[in-house]
Amino acid sequence: MTTLSYDKVEVHKSLCEKIRRAAARAISEGDPWKKYNIQSIPAERVVRHCYNPTTRQFVKDETIVKVEKEPFTHGAMRHCYRMKKMATPPQSASNHRFHSYGWSRALNYVAKCYLDENGVPDTSREGSDAVLTDIILQYEAAHWANEFNKSDPPRKIDFIRAYAMEFVDRPGKPMFAVERFIAGSDSYGNGFLKHNTNSGYVDLETRRKTPQVFSAHSFYASHGERLVADIQGVGDLYTDPQVSSFILYVIPFLHWMH
């Protein structure tokens, strides 16, 4: 086995163990969304669009989900909804037995949609393309995370895998970006944190070094072509990044490091 392949195996083992511990904590703590009674919401048929970074193509399949009608939080451009999805999709989303079976044990997800100028889910082609682009960029961020881990930092990092979900039975068939909900806290006792943004914000309260060094590393490793920012998550399991190529975004991070 070559040194490079050995490094990849060790990084994979480390990340799998990190995710396993996070899952074990989540199970021991119970369902953090139990009080919202999402399992009582009617199920919906959806089409998943899963990105394959090797072929650079999206692969589709069907499943069913339960989503709250109102967002639990929002930003300037998107609404975020609590969602539950079965771990294993049914063979047919039209099999109504699955619409009421085992939802109390279903996994928690966050579904995010872009808003149009009227403040409602964007059902345009541009809105769907924006979601698919976000999924591709999250995989690109995961690529730079792997490059960062190859340098053997004190703390390895990873990005949650995301995919697009098309609500085919809703008017306009809106597209949502979907990823697992990150619960719990890190080894410092912190919950979900935003460490930096693509507009120059850098967290100076918790002052975690790993997220800031990773952002800078992505810039130098890509020879100035890319900068992964908007680093946020629990511990070093990150989500919903932004990938930019503008040099002005690296200045705040370099300033913070010095």
Describe the structure.
The chain is of the alpha+beta class. Strand 11 and strand 12 form a beta hairpin. The longest helix has 27 residues. The protein is globular and about 45 Å long. The chain starts with a helix and ends with a helix. The N terminus and C terminus are likely disordered.
What would you call the quaternary organization? single chain
Shape: globular
Q: What does the average pLDDT come to?
A: 85
Tell me the fraction of residues in β-strands, as a range.
15-25%
Please report the number of helical segments: 4
Compute the separation of the termini in Å.
39 Å
Query: How many β-strands, per DSSP?
Result: 13
Radius of gyration, CA atoms, in whole angstroms? 19 Å
What helical percentage do the residues reach? 25-40%
Reported for the largest beta sheet, the result is: 6 strands, antiparallel, barrel
Strand order of the largest sheet: 1-2-4-5-8-7
The structural class is: alpha+beta
Order of helices and strands: HEEEEEHEEEEHEEEEH
Residue ranges: pLDDT <50 for 5 or more in a row?
A: 1-6, 247-258
